[in-house]
Structures are given as structure tokens and as C-alpha cells.
Write a structure and sequence with these properties.
Largest sheet: 8 strands, mixed
Structural class: alpha/beta
Strand content: 5-15%
Shape: elongated
Distance between the termini: 76 Å
Helix content: 25-40%
Number of helices: 19
Length: 683
């Protein structure tokens, strides 16, 4: 079974229920899909059936390959048994397979034995497998013998395959109800075009591969089986978190025009001056709840990529601890040769915490940092410009004083989670390959410390670092006020539940809640996230209760010497790749390490295998070393391959004996150059 909860799933549904579209959405995030078509071609006189088949073909992305088994129903079991662990198969559908199985051309056939073979192949299939099958058991018993034979055989096949699969889902009227595992997981099927419409843009699921900016792909949000069953949810989003208000603008910083620019000057007349939208308080159909089944990274690609590094032609001992970066990228990209992260987006969350959580901070400093980032100034924007990363500043509501009252209401927590999920979905739809998560609000460190105390059993003084003023002085009085705020908040909530949403409402606040939604949405879309600072780590701690898979999509470049980050990373099992102790501000630390990680991935992908592991055709390497063998004589001479130590033949009159001339060079009638035993000429 795959580590993300299922490796094989059976999608059942009635006619026009949306079962095929739902099945296609489950594999839409896979880089390649092998589509196994089981139905026979339409007869020449059945235009309607031919149109159905054509609609199925037009929905498939160009990256998918198609394999047909209609000629031999037993071949389906062979296809499943021979599939590799890195493959993704979609079988559509078992109804067509049973039709071919009952065809007189394949009789006499042992239907029971063939169905048992198929179930055994499904149970042992190493690939990620989705099977589609019609559910006809709810209709009337057919009046014809052939109809009864079909329903009986299909019912037997569905039961056998459902027993062999890890998960089973029933699609009814476009709504998916998960039957296995036991707890239902409702989801919405992507909207489709009518039977007379065609074209992938009208009737297809989200295409695999990078999405174009601004597209409205549904994509792997369905693959993570996000909960979208609330009434009034957007019908065509397939689990996406649509909102009526726009998201904050996304900018791509550019380096300053001149190094002597006036400090503090902001560009005018550009999109950089556009205000960042506030958190939209809108209701959507997404339901985020504990125990969600979201995808896991490829469990095979990561270890195989690290094993491959040992075969590369590297002069030294390898990449050291940065091998983990290659393994992480391979697992999240699903390939043993991961590519450097091309499109990177930084999400900078700005929202202050009121009360003593912000003790020691200058009033308005966090807002100045947010304005600075939007203006393309400061460390974060400059590093984003150097690395070609996008920057999105997200305003979140201010959080109430944790020591006296909950930081957020329950409704605010729900909206913040959904909003963070939507931000991640928009990034995935735009083709972003890596998210960087940071925050710049006042009091964020104390809020993150409170979350760690509640979720990891830490002590506030152990996870709160000392407060340093703008002048570089240590303010111990402010540090003690922060510790007291966390202590009082934990005392106030000592009898409160410690579920994820309760922790966010009582202690975490707006930035931690939005960050949690970002991590969940990114996990659903198989989008890796680089954490930078205590807010992201605190959010990752909260996601353990909602979807434990989220932490496996997180990467920590540097802990920055922050005790909260170090503790949270240790609990989450996130080993920092570097120990540079950078403290440039959340988001900027990750961008400073990004070029190094990109270089490592590029090197790992481009280096060839060591010559000792080659095929032996070119075992003798080319060399520029001199050839010390004796040159071949110009005329008749010895044919032995042994070195010839004789004096070269004189160019003029001289001795004619073939004996070696051992006279000193330079005599009359002799060459002034001599050959030493190594074959090199002296003089």
C-alpha cells in the first residue's frame, strides 16, 4: 500500500455520474499516466457510442499513453502485474472489460477464474492504480439472459476488485462518497461538458504537468480527497477553494536600477505600490477536518535518487548532507533525477499579535517591513530579485491578546484555513514548483512558542529567544513579558481541548492559521514548501492533527539558531540542511540558501555516471599523457613489439651495421639526438 493511504482505488458510479472524471482527477497530478482502455471499438452503425469513446480520448492529456486490452480480456491482469512502482495506471472501465469477457468470441471462458486472476493482479500491483467500474446492482434485474449474465459477472468483478483495492469510492450525481476506508470522504467531481461537446478545455480534468499562470485548474486537490461536501460549494472546482474576493497581488521583484538609489524611496506608477488585499472573509465549500487523507511524496524516488548519487562521476566524496535536498526533491517530484526548482513563490504573512506577545517590538515596524517588501526593497525583495522568485504579501487579521482571550473566533479559524489552502492552490495552478513560507508580524515568535508548548510539551523560556532591540541591546524585561504571556495563555486554556483548530483559535492567531491552510493546500497539490521561521514550523505542528502527510512536503533549509524552530523541527523529523544561523527575516533566510540548493539539484541531474559503471565500450579513457613507446621504424626493421633500444639510423654516410651504435652522440655522420630507453629523445 502506498504511504499516502492508498495505492489502488476502485471508483464506482452509475451512468453519467461523473465517475470517469473523478477517477481522472485522482491521477491528474501524476507526471505520466498509462490509460488502459478495455472497451471494444464502436460498431460502424453506433454513432452515439463512438461519440462517447471520442470524448474520453479527447479528455486525456498529451502526456498520457493509452493501452487497449479489448482483444484479450485476460491481458488486463498481465498489464497490472507487470506495472512498476513508479507508474500510474487508470483502467476505464471494468464494464467494458466484462462485456468483452462475455463476448462469444472468447467463449468458452471461465469467467470466475478470470475475475479471480484480475483481483489477484490488483492486490499485487506495485503501481498507483485507479479502476473505474459501473455500479449496476441498484437497477432492476434485466429481463434478458445476456443482461442478467452481464450484471452477475460485473457484480462479481466489482466485489472481488473492491476487496483487493485499498480504497473504494462511489460517485453519485457528481458527488463522491468514500466507502473504504470506512469513514466517508465526500468530494466534488470536476465539472464536465455535455456529451456533444469536446475538447480538453471543456470536458477534461486538470492536466498533468505545470499549469499556466492564471489558469483555473482543479488538479490534485481531488487527489488529496479534500473535503468539499458542504452545501453551496463551487460545483466546477473539484475541491478548489474559490472565493469572490481577489487574492493579494503576486510580484516578481527586480534588482534596483542603480546601487546609489535614494534610501527609502518607493517606485511610483508601478504594480509594486499596489496595496495587498486583506484576508477575505468569505464562505466556501471546503471542510478542513482532522484525519484528512492527503498525498505523500513518492516513497521510492527519494531513496533511489540518493542511491544514484553514489554512481555519479564526482571527484570527491559527494554532496554530503545536501544529498537530503536531492532526496526530498526527487520524492516530491516523483523522479530519480529531480530538476532544480524553477518557479518559486514566497508567501509573506503579515498580521500582528496584540498584548504582551509583541513586547519589545517597535510599533508599526512589522507594517513597515510589509510595505518595504511590496515596494521591492529590503533583504527579502532583493534576494527574491536575485533568485527570480515571486513575492506575495498576505495581510491577515490581527490576533487578540492570548493571555486574556482567544486569539481568533472559530469562524475566523475556518476562514483562515480555507484562505491559506486557496493561496497554495493558486500557486500550484500558476505553475509554482516551490513555496517559501514566512511571516513578519509583531508577536509571531510568542504565538509560535505557545503553539509549541501546547503541541510538543515545551516550556516557554526554552523556545523563546531573547529580545534584541533595534540598537542591538538585549531587553530581558520584554522577554519575560513574552514568557508570561505564553504562561498565562496556557493557564487560561488548561481545561480547553488541544485539537488543531482549538490551538489555532486560543493560541496561534491569524498568521499561524493561514500558514496551516497553506501547508494543507500545498500537500493536496503535491507542492513542496520551504519553511523559514517559527510560524511555519508551528503551522507544521498543527497539521499533524489535520493531515499527517503535510510534514513530508516540508523542507527546512536553516534553523537560524532559533530555539522554537530547532525544537519543532526535531519533533517533526525535519533536519535542517544547513547550519548557517541566518537571521535576515523570515523568507529571506530561505532565499539566501536557495541558489545553493538549486545548484546541487542541477549538478545531480547533469553529472554522468562514473566510467567504471559504464558499458565497457569505451573503457580505455582518452588521455593527453605522452606515449612512451618506441616509434615504429620508417623502413624495414624488427617486427617485435619489444622496445627498440638501437641508435636511430644515421641520416648521412655512416656505419651500416645493424648492431646498436653505442657511440657518444655528436660524431661525424650521426644524428645529434639520441633516444633514451624510455623512448624520449635527448638533447
Amino acid at each position: 500500500m502506498s504511504v499516502d493511504g492508498w495505492n489502488t482505488v476502485l471508483v464506482l458510479g452509475g451512468i453519467r455520474s461523473g465517475k470517469s472524471e473523478f477517477a481522472e482527477s485522482l491521477v491528474a497530478d501524476a507526471p505520466t499516466v498509462r490509460y488502459v482502455a478495455t472497451a471494444a471499438d464502436a460498431p460502424a452503425d453506433d454513432a452515439e457510442w463512438a461519440a462517447r469513446l471520442a470524448a474520453h480520448r479527447e479528455r486525456r492529456p498529451e502526456t498520457w499513453t493509452t493501452e487497449e486490452t479489448a482483444a484479450d480480456p485476460r491481458r488486463l491482469a498481465d498489464v497490472l502485474a507487470s506495472a512498476g512502482p513508479n507508474e500510474t495506471l487508470l483502467v476505464d472501465d471494468l464494464g467494458g472489460w466484462v462485456t468483452v469477457l462475455l463476448d462469444p468470441a472468447h467463449q468458452p471462458a471461465d469467467d470466475t477464474a478470470t475475475i479471480a486472476e484480475l483481483a489477484a493482479a490488483v492486490r499485487s500491483c506495485a503501481a498507483r492504480l485507479v479502476l473505474v467500474s459501473p455500479e449496476v446492482g441498484l437497477s432492476l434485474v434485466p429481463t434478458t439472459p445476456l443482461g442478467r449474465a452481464f450484471t452477475d459477472a460485473l457484480g462479481a468483478a466489482n466485489r472481488a476488485v473492491a476487496d483487493a483495492c485499498d480504497a473504494v469510492v462511489l460517485v453519485v450525481a457528481g458527488q463522491a462518497a468514500w466507502l473504504k476506508p470506512g469513514a466517508p470522504h465526500p468530494a466534488t467531481v470536476p465539472a464536465q461538458a455535455g456529451p456533444t461537446q469536446s475538447g480538453p478545455a471543456q470536458s477534461g480534468p486538470a492536466q498533468a504537468g505545470p499549469a499556466q499562470p492564471g489558469s483555473a485548474q482543479a488538479g490534485p486537490a481531488q487527489a488529496g480527497r479534500a473535503q468539499t461536501g458542504a452545501p453551496g460549494s463551487p460545483g466546477g472546482a473539484g475541491g478548489s477553494v474559490a472565493a469572490s474576493e481577489p487574492s493579494p497581488d503576486v510580484f516578481t521583484p527586480t534588482p534596483p536600477a542603480a546601487p546609489d538609489a535614494v534610501p527609502g524611496a518607493e517606485p511610483t506608477g508601478t504594480a509594486w505600490a499596489a496595496p495587498t488585499m486583506a484576508l477575505p472573509m468569505v464562505a466556501t465549500g471546503l471542510v478542513i477536518q482532522p484525519g484528512m487523507e492527503l498525498p505523500m511524496p513518492d516513497e521510492y524516488a527519494g531513496p533511489q535518487a540518493i542511491e544514484r548519487l553514489a554512481t555519479l562521476d564526482v571527484p570527491g566524496s559527494g554532496l554530503g548532507v545536501l544529498e537530503r535536498a536531492v532526496g526530498f526533491a526527487a520524492a516530491t517530484q516523483g523522479t530519480v533525477t529531480p530538476a532544480p526548482w524553477g518557479r518559486v513563490r514566497v508567501l509573506l504573512l503579515h498580521g500582528d499579535h496584540l498584548g504582551d506577545a509583541a513586547a519589545g517590538t517597535v510599533e508599526g515596524e512589522s507594517a513597515r517591513r510589509a510595505r518595504q517588501a511590496r515596494a521591492g526593497q529590503g533583504a527579502l525583495a532583493r534576494l527574491a530579485a536575485e533568485s527570480g522568485a515571486e513575492l506575495q504579501v498576505v495581510e491577515v487579521p490581527a490576533s487578540a491578546p492570548m493571555e486574556t482571550e482567544p486569539t481568533l473566533t472559530g469562524e475566523q479559524v475556518e476562514v483562515a484555513l480555507r484562505y491559506g489552502w486557496r493561496l497554495a492552490e493558486e500557486a500550484a495552478d500558476a505553475g509554482v514548483r516551490l513555496l517559501v513560507l514566512g511571516a513578519c508580524g509583531a508577536g509571531t515568535e510568542a504565538a509560535a512558542a505557545a503553539v509549541l508548548v501546547a503541541t510538543a510539551g515545551a516550556e516557554a523560556p526554552a523556545v523563546l529567544r531573547r529580545v534584541v532591540t533595534d540598537s542591538g541591546e538585549i531587553d530581558d524585561a520584554a522577554w519575560m513579558r513574552r514568557c508570561a504571556a505564553v504562561r498565562d495563555a496556557l493557564h487560561r486554556t488548561r481545561n480547553s481541548p488541544r485539537s488543531a483548530k482549538d490551538v489555532l483559535a486560543e493560541l496561534g492567531g491569524g498568521d499561524v492559521a493561514v500558514a496551516t491552510g497553506v501547508l494543507l493546500g500545498a500537500t493536496a497539490r503535491r507542492l513542496p514548501v520551504m519553511l523559514d521561521g517559527p510560524v511555519g514550523v508551528a503551522a507544521a505542528m498543527v497539521t499533524r492533527d489535520l493531515a499527517g502527510q503535510a510534514r513530508h512536503w516540508c523542507l527546512l533549509a536553516d534553523h537560524g539558531g532559533h530555539p522554537a524552530v530547532q525544537l519543532g523541527a526535531d519533533v517533526l523529523g525535519l533536519t535542517p540542511l544547513l547550519d548557517l544561523r541566518l537571521d535576515l527575516g523570515e523568507g529571506a533566510n530561505a532565499l539566501a540558501a536557495l541558489p545553493l540548493l538549486r545548484s546541487v539539484l542541477a549538478l545531480a541531474a547533469a553529472l554522468p555516471a562514473h566510467p567504471s559503471l559504464g558499458d565497457g565500450e569505451n573503457d580505455e579513457p582518452a588521455t593527453d599523457e605522452p606515449d612512451f613507446r618506441e616509434p615504429e621504424p620508417a623502413g624495414p626493421g624488427p617486427t617485435s613489439t619489444e622496445p627498440d633500444f638501437r641508435e636511430p639510423e644515421p641520416t648521412g654516410p655512416g656505419p651500416t651495421s645493424t648492431e646498436a651504435d653505442l657511440r657518444e652522440p655528436g660524431g661525424a655522420g650521426t644524428d645529434t639526438e639520441a633516444v633514451d630507453p624510455s623512448g624520449r629523445r635527448a638533447g
